Amino acid sequence: MPHYVREYLKTVFTFATKAMFVFFLVLILVMLAFAQLFRQSQQLQDPQHYRVQGTAERKVTPDTIYLTVGTRVEGSDIVAIQTEANNKINAAVKAIENLGIPKENIRTSEYALNPEYDREGRDITGYSVNIEVRVTVEDATLEENKAGDVIKVASGNGLNEVRSLSYEVSNREEILEELKLEAIEDAKGKKDAVADAAGLRLGDLKSVEEGYYYPYYDNFGRAETVSDGAAAAPSVQISPGQSELSITVTLVYEIL
Fold this sequence. Notes:
- It contains 4 helices and 8 strands; from the N terminus they run αββαββαβαβββ.
- By secondary structure, it is of the alpha+beta class.
- It has 3 domains: 1-45; 49-59 and 173-214 and 247-255, no CATH class; 63-170 and 218-237, Protein of unknown function (DUF541), domain 2 (Alpha-Beta Plaits, 2-Layer Sandwich), CATH 3.30.70.2970.
- The strands form 2 sheets. The chain has a 5-stranded antiparallel β-sheet with strand order 3-4-2-5-7, with helices on one face.
- β3 (106-117) and β4 (124-137) form a beta hairpin.
- The longest helix is centred in the first third of the chain and has 42 residues, at 3-44.
- The chain starts with a helix and ends with a strand.
């Protein structure tokens, strides 16, 4: 056999040997990784833990109302429509402040000036200004109906579209903490009853898992138009109604 053939076969054999070594090394590493994942999954599904759920709920009445009022001003004179838009904002904000709403709870949330084009989309035929004012009504009650008064005076001063309306409970976190303790007590009561009936002997509490549900009502995107000059009309009655705040906790105990 020629020398160059022997050298070629030797090179091929050496390369094949190294390739096989790398292949088996990678295979071993993959098997070790799968073994580790399997052990972890077994730990997560460890039957030596007892889980019990507790719940607590409460009816709450939202006391904070967020609403956005606005309008659209159109015309061919860009300065004139900006002046008109500014006048409407200033008049509406002043009227809302006169209701006792703090200045920090009133802000211009949108002021957009845009050109208007013809059907072909080439020539500018005029301009439009879209304006919005967002108002936060705190300590809202059905008797005072401040949100309805805000809509009334805003529309009376040119902001005749209700762009959004939503409700919230101001002390939600405080209520959730109270409900969490109630849910834990509920779970503890179930734990003793079920464990005794099943003949289980429980050890230490290993973990506490929690989740809560609170509906957030938002009519965003439903712009309702109120006729101009509505300042003389009665206020719109705004009633957030009641909603249910609930929390669920899961106590995880060790089984001895």
